[in-house]
TrEMBL record, chain A:
Descriptive protein name: (2Fe-2S)-binding protein
InterPro entries hit by this protein: 2Fe-2S-bd, 2Fe-2S-bd_dom_sf, 2Fe-2S_ferredoxin-like_sf, 2Fe-2S_ferredoxin-type, Beta-grasp_dom_sf, Diverse_Oxidoreductases
Taxonomic source organism: Actinomadura harenae
CDD domains per the UniProt record, alphabetical: fer2
Pathway note: Alkaloid degradation; nicotine degradation
Gene Ontology MF annotations: 2 iron, 2 sulfur cluster binding; metal ion binding; oxidoreductase activity
UniProt cross-references to Pfam families, sorted A to Z: Fer2 (PF00111), Fer2_2 (PF01799)
PANTHER family in UniProt: OXIDOREDUCTASE WITH IRON-SULFUR SUBUNIT (PTHR44379)
Keyword set includes Iron: yes
TrEMBL record, chain B:
Keywords recorded for this protein, A-Z: FAD, Flavoprotein, Oxidoreductase
GO molecular function: FAD binding; oxidoreductase activity
Species per Swiss-Prot/TrEMBL record: Actinomadura harenae
Superkingdom per UniProt: Bacteria
Signal peptide: none
PROSITE patterns, per the entry: FAD_PCMH
A Pfam entry, by short name: CO_deh_flav_C
Protein name (record): Xanthine dehydrogenase family protein subunit M
Domain FAD-binding PCMH-type: 1-178
């Protein structure tokens, strides 16, 4: 079995993994990082989105061995500085940008990815940026509002992920 | 679902990858970004014995200037391609079409060469490669280097002219010169879905006449196809709205579009005509 070394939310892990183990299953079942859910299992819904070396990736479509030597950020790693919730997490709460919450971790990671490239996205740009993330209950109005609200806060405070 | 079991090989160089392929045999698959292959594994639609992961073969990611052409490395990601200054300047059709592929997370991992070697007729990039007369650069340990023109590369549904021990190493794209206009027109119902039909077109105008026109159709057959009848009708003629409209009516000629839940063959033929007119209009608007 291949041995992998991967940094997840700031901590380094070394594990022997079966080649077919998906990154999302590694995160949830081996590391207990259950903040990243499995959604559609077909690369459509984006619920399992994490940052892989800083870029968003659907962790159901990446093998754990492919993360060897790389760094992963999940939604659980967003407030490492101890300063409480990330502005995106607060904005999703404030704007009622979720009902069941299943898509929320992926939405927040995909939003983070979008805001890195574009700190002040228009409504259309938020919708484009989140096109790989599906929400089946709240709808997108409040999600878009939350992302733009968080962006405004992050621009004034220079918050790092 | 959990993918089936397979052996996993991770070569560190192109030479090592080429040496591994003959031993891995016909039931091996090359893993690039995995954004098409991983869903197939999870749905248990593919059962490869071995995956040869190209992730560590850094040389295959390069995009370089090659005189009158660009060479895009096979594992350059979509994200890399659509943001690359050389691609944006010299192959704007590739940049524009790549930006319509799937969604940002998939584009971070999916690769240019992977999309072509996967040869899904509903994929956007095969029709673009065909419209641009791209040349596929293949290499094997036994046969050395081989150049395959796009029109010979796509053999059948998800089947290319690559041999089992052969690797697509890159794609040569002719540089766009002055007078060329481009457009990729994609029709799909939801943001990240495959094209029901797509039209890639490249038009060169000289003094109000269409000097050269190339049109590649996505999802109008088991392989990407050129709309040859439209090209012949328009080429050498004066450019006008009427000429574009009339020529576009020929877009579905000699095609065999699939019928599925997204649309009948007849509907796809209709779309091909409408989208070709739109694509030609956009490519000649500037």
């Amino acid at each position: 079995m291949p041995r992998i070394r991967v940094e997840v939310d700031g901590e380094t892990y070394e594990d022997d993994v079966e080649p077919r183990l998906l990154l999302v299953h590694y995160l949830r079942e081996r590391l207990g990082k259950v903040g990243t859910p499995v959604g559609c299992d077909t690369t459509n819904c984006g619920a399992c989105t994490v940052l892989l070396d800083g870029l968003s990736a659907k962790s159901c479509s990446v093998l754990a061995v492919q993360a060897d030597g790389r760094s992963v950020t999940t939604v659980e790693g967003l407030s490492l500085d101890g300063a409480g919730d990330h502005p995106l997490q607060r904005a999703f709460h404030r704007e009622h940008a979720l009902q069941c919450g299943y898509c929320t971790p992926g939405m927040i990671i995909a939003s983070l990815d979008l805001l890195r490239d574009n700190p002040d996205p228009s409504e259309a740009e938020v919708r484009e940026g989140l096109e790989g993330n599906l929400c089946r209950c709240t709808g997108y109005q409040n999600i878009v509002r939350a992302v733009r609200g968080a962006a405004a806060e992050m621009r004034t405070r220079e918050v790092a992920p | 679902m959990i993918p089936p079991t397979f052996e996993y090989l991770r070569p560190e160089s192109l030479g090592e990858a080429l040496r591994m392929l003959p031993d891995a045999g016909e039931d091996a698959k090359v893993l690039a970004g995995g954004q098409s292959l991983m869903p197939l594994l999870r749905l248990r639609l593919a059962y490869p014995d071995t995956l040869v992961d190209l992730d560590r073969v850094a040389a295959l990611r390069e995009i370089r200037d090659d005189g009158d052409a660009l060479v895009v490395g096979a594992t350059a990601t979509h994200h890399q391609v659509m943001n690359d200054p050389l691609v944006r300047r010299f192959a704007p059709l590739v940049a524009a079409a790549t930006a319509t592929v799937a969604d940002p997370a998939v584009r971070h991992r999916g690769t240019f060469g992977g999309s072509l070697a996967h040869a899904d007729p509903a994929g956007d990039l095969p029709a673009v490669a065909l419209a641009l007369d791209a040349v596929m650069l293949a290499r094997s340990a036994s046969g050395g280097d081989r150049e395959i023109p796009a029109r010979d590369f796509f053999v059948d549904w998800m089947t290319t002219a690559l041999e089992p021990d052969e690797l697509l190493t890159g794609v040569r794209l002719p540089k766009a010169g002055p007078g060329w206009g481009f457009h990729y027109e994609k029709f799909h119902r939801t943001a990240q879905a495959w094209a029901i039909v797509g039209v890639a077109c490249a038009v060169r105008r000289v003094q109000g006449a269409v000097e050269d026109v190339r049109i590649g159709l996505t999802n109008m057959g088991s392989v990407p196809v050129r709309a040859s009848a439209v090209e012949e009708r328009l080429g050498g003629n004066a450019l006008s709205d009427g000429a574009l409209r009339e020529a576009s009516e020929l877009a579905a000629e000699d095609t065999a579009p699939p019928a599925d839940l997204h649309g009948s063959a007849e509907y796809r033929s209709h779309l091909a005509r409408v989208l070709t007119r739109r694509a030609l209009g956009a490519a000649t608007a500037r």
